[in-house]
Amino acid sequence: MRRGADSNSADQSGDLRSSRSSATPALAVARLGALIETAITVLDEETQALRTSNPEAIERFLDRKGQILVTLNRALGGEFQALPPKELSNALARLRAALEANCNALTIQIEAVRDVTQMIVCAIEQARSDGTYGAPRGNGGYGGC
């Protein structure tokens, strides 16, 4: 499945690059603007799925987000590398906000997984030991939990 997503990404970015050379600057800006809007939509949808703890939806966004961000990165690396046109500044600001919200939602999920993992490790350690050899902890337990 990844191979198909990667080839689609390459096809889309290749189309954008080839169309850039033959298209007017306004058309290239419009296409890049549409690509940015697509990235914002995907990021917003994934962020919402993260906030509602919808693991099935989150899984669907992995490939979509990766594909669109790679395509966007390639598109921005061309003629817009030095300074994007003013027409894109609002879209790029919204993209930055969507990326930050997505990063915050992902951070919350990662911290939750880390907390659950720590609880499981502590439960396993406590189940394995009768406390004979472990040093007492400040909270009354033994070991690193």
Order of helices and strands: HHHH
Structural class of the helix and strand makeup? mainly alpha
Low-confidence stretches: 1-22
What value does the Rg take, in angstroms? 23 Å
The tally of strands reads: 0
The percentage helix is over 70%
Strand share of the residues?
Answer: under 5%
Query: How many helices in DSSP terms?
Result: 4
Largest sheet: none
Describe it.
The protein starts with a helix and ends in a 17-residue tail after the last helix. Helix content is 76%, strand content 0%. The protein has 145 residues and is mainly alpha-helical. It contains 4 helices and no strands. The longest helix is centred in the C-terminal third of the chain and has 40 residues. Helix 1 runs parallel beside helix 3, helix 2 runs antiparallel to helix 3 and helix 2 runs parallel beside helix 4.
Which helices and strands appear, and what pairs or packs with what?
Layout: H1 2-22, H2 25-51, H3 55-76, H4 89-128
Key features?
0% strand, elongated, mainly alpha, 145 residues, single chain
Précis, in short:
This protein is mostly helical and 145 residues long.
